[in-house]
Amino acid sequence: HLEESGGGLVLPGGSLRLSCVSSGANGVINTMGWFRQSPGKEREFLAVINWRGTSTFYADSVKGRFTIARANANDTTYLYLDSLKPEDTGVYYCARGTGPDVLAGIPRSWGQGTQVTVSS
User: Fold this and answer.
1) What's the pLDDT at 28?
2) Are the C-beta atoms of residues 116 and 88 closer than 8 Å to each other?
3) What is the CA radius of gyration of the chain?
């Protein structure tokens, strides 16, 4: 089970921190990722982090602006969003699976999503 929080309305150039609390993780099936679905678009991959938190990978569209991190002690994965743009508006989902599954957009589990709106 995955549950996101932290979305909201933010001005362009602003920042947010999204959180995803995970339960029921299982060994190697514990790579975490974040995805986004913007209005009228398909869900897209944003970032992924391995279970130890030692390796990350980002989509070009968010590299340098978003940061993924995790705190295994409290089963939480974060996505820090900085320098937000109106085109970052969308529903943000966390996901869990093996590394290849998450990168391919077919993770084992999805959260319910949290809305981020970037607007003045």
Assistant:
1) 60
2) yes
3) 13
